[in-house]
Structure formats: C-alpha cells, structure tokens
Amino acid sequence: MAEKTIGILTGGGDCPGLNAVIRAVVRKGITAYRYRFRGILKGWKGMMECDWEPLGLEEISGILPKGGTILGTSRTNPFKEEDGGEIVVDNMRRMKLDALVAIGGEDTLGVANKLASMSVPIVGVPKTIDNDLNGTDYTFGFDTAVNIVTEAIDRIHTTAESHNRVMVIEVMGRHSGWIALHAGLAGGADMILIPEQKYTIQEIVSTIRKRHERGKDFSIVVVAEGAQLVSEEGEENKLGGIGQLVAHAVEEGTSYETRVTVLGHLQRGGTPTAFDRVLGTRFGIAAIDLVHAGDFGKMVSLQGNEIVAIPLAEAVNQLKLVDQELYDLATVFFG
C-alpha cells in the first residue's frame, strides 16, 4: 500500500502545548502507520500559498517543552477570501496530501468544518487558551494560562497589601471568563468580572467599600478583557481597556489608591504545564488515530478523563461559557 502524506497546521493565536500535539501526531504517524508529514506554515495562510516543510522525527525532537508552535500561525480564514475554499482543495492535491490535521480554535475549526462539508479528509484538534470551545471539557494552554495568572495575582497581592491599594488585574477572555474565574479563585481575588455577567460601577464600588469597611485596606479585582460595565443609562463599554475603566471607576468612587496591571501576552508565552503537555499529547495521538481510521470531519475532545471524537460541526456551533454554578461559588469570597 502506498505511503500516505498527512499535512498539519496550527491556526489562530499561539498557545502552550501546540508543539506537544505536533510531536504526538508525527511520532505515532511515522512509527505506527509509516506516514509522511508536511508541516503547513502559518496556518491557513500556508494552505492558501502551498507553503510547507517536511516534518520528521528529527524536526520534532526536543519540541515538547517549547511554547508557541514550530509551524508558525496566522489568523487567515480562506472563506473570507474569494474562492478560498476551492484554493485550499486544489492545494491539497498540489501538495499531494491524503489528509489534514488542523489544530486551532473556533475560527480555525470553523474552516475545517466547511472543508469537511466539501469532502476534504480533515481532523480537528481543539486549541483555545480561553477554554471556550464547545464539546471539550478543557483545551490545552488553558491550564498554563491559569497558572501564570495565579502566580501574577500572588505577586501583586504583596504589593497591594504593602501599599494599601486596590489592584485591578486584566486577563484574557474576550467572550468567556474561564481564565479570570479559575485564576481569581486560585489567587483569592476579592472580585472577579467576566463577560458572562453584567456589572454596574456602583456594584463594583460597593463591593470594594464593603471589604474595606470590615477592616481590609487592600483589594484584588480580576477582570476578563471582555467584561461588560453597564452605565445607569444601560450603555455598555466597548471591548478594550476594561482594566483602566474599572480602576478609574473604583478610585473615583472610593478614593482608594488604585492601580491596574494588564497581563496581555504573558499569559500565552513560555513553556506549557505538565497538564497541557499530557493533554496535547493525548489529543495528538487520538487525532492521528482518527486519520488512520478514515474517521474524518471529527474533532478530538476531552470528556471527563476520556478522549473521544465529536463532529466538527458540534464543536463550532456555539461558545462554551462559564458555568453559573462555579461563578456563584466564587461570589462567596467577594468583598
């Protein structure tokens, strides 16, 4: 039987654990199935431009602990360009690919789902640092981000206490508050603001005042970047700069000295945690097994402690938002 050639790409934002997935796919694909691999460079941009390099055992050696992705990434979406889907299909033939493994979040896997409907043999691996992809309990990179944010909260906590300040920490989470909630709980935040909830300035100010009135002269507020402040007129703030908005509002409303720290790209950089290395490895093994079984149009998923396959369409049909029960638990410690 002729040796098959499999393409691998990583799309969207970089994320700790991507290289663990690449390593697992290639390692098992070569040693168990005798596949050849082509690493598509810069995500879907590489598929549009036939930009690839060979991937073998030598290329994946030593990449497990490395952050980012050895293949590079981009936010290119072929279906936002004229005839983009057809170009990808044609380039699959030009690169002589028998199947494609796409590692990415909602946008990347949305492209994969559309290509699957065009009969492209494709398997998806879920990747979003925000942990908001539907159909999987956790995505790799999330645990690393939560650990980084928790450590930052711990460090900022000592400054807040020393200077009797309110410290506002802005973290990732455009549409969901998983990072803010988990890290805020782990770091002992005194208030956590997430996109799934609506907040008024008065509500935030009141919570901070209540804490100070019971003898605490510092506070930690963790804010997801997509959190929404609602004015008395019902107007919502636009995405961007929420940490500064909250800090200004708290200082104005309480007269307490307030500072803001925006963690930004610190949350996605650096080496992945052990959990994310193992999860990425498990996803990669499951993905290449799906390819070998010819079970295309699926995404690998963590459900409980099992890796299962679900339809790509199920993974991208809606965002996975924070559980209300978990948020209610966190509110016990507010103020």
UniProtKB/TrEMBL annotation:
<dbReference type="GO" id="GO:0046872">
    <property type="term" value="F:metal ion binding"/>
</dbReference>
<dbReference type="GO" id="GO:0016208">
    <property type="term" value="F:AMP binding"/>
</dbReference>
<dbReference type="InterPro" id="IPR015912">
    <property type="entry name" value="Phosphofructokinase_CS"/>
</dbReference>
<comment type="pathway">
    <text>Carbohydrate degradation; glycolysis; D-glyceraldehyde 3-phosphate and glycerone phosphate from D-glucose: step 3/4.</text>
</comment>
<dbReference type="GO" id="GO:0047334">
    <property type="term" value="F:diphosphate-fructose-6-phosphate 1-phosphotransferase activity"/>
</dbReference>
<dbReference type="InterPro" id="IPR035966">
    <property type="entry name" value="PKF_sf"/>
</dbReference>
<dbReference type="GO" id="GO:0005524">
    <property type="term" value="F:ATP binding"/>
</dbReference>
<keyword id="KW-0479">Metal-binding</keyword>
<dbReference type="GO" id="GO:0005945">
    <property type="term" value="C:6-phosphofructokinase complex"/>
</dbReference>
<dbReference type="GO" id="GO:0042802">
    <property type="term" value="F:identical protein binding"/>
</dbReference>
<keyword id="KW-0324">Glycolysis</keyword>
<dbReference type="InterPro" id="IPR012829">
    <property type="entry name" value="Phosphofructokinase_III"/>
</dbReference>
<dbReference type="GO" id="GO:0030388">
    <property type="term" value="P:fructose 1,6-bisphosphate metabolic process"/>
</dbReference>
<feature type="domain" description="Phosphofructokinase">
    <location>
        <begin position="6"/>
        <end position="291"/>
    </location>
</feature>
<dbReference type="GO" id="GO:0070095">
    <property type="term" value="F:fructose-6-phosphate binding"/>
</dbReference>
<dbReference type="GO" id="GO:0006002">
    <property type="term" value="P:fructose 6-phosphate metabolic process"/>
</dbReference>
<keyword id="KW-0963">Cytoplasm</keyword>
<keyword id="KW-0460">Magnesium</keyword>
<keyword id="KW-0418">Kinase</keyword>
<dbReference type="InterPro" id="IPR012003">
    <property type="entry name" value="ATP_PFK_prok-type"/>
</dbReference>
<dbReference type="GO" id="GO:0061621">
    <property type="term" value="P:canonical glycolysis"/>
</dbReference>
<dbReference type="GO" id="GO:0048029">
    <property type="term" value="F:monosaccharide binding"/>
</dbReference>
<dbReference type="GO" id="GO:0003872">
    <property type="term" value="F:6-phosphofructokinase activity"/>
</dbReference>
<dbReference type="InterPro" id="IPR022953">
    <property type="entry name" value="ATP_PFK"/>
</dbReference>
<protein>
    <recommendedName>
        <fullName>6-phosphofructokinase</fullName>
        <ecNumber>2.7.1.11</ecNumber>
    </recommendedName>
</protein>
<keyword id="KW-0808">Transferase</keyword>
<dbReference type="Pfam" id="PF00365">
    <property type="entry name" value="PFK"/>
</dbReference>
<dbReference type="InterPro" id="IPR000023">
    <property type="entry name" value="Phosphofructokinase_dom"/>
</dbReference>
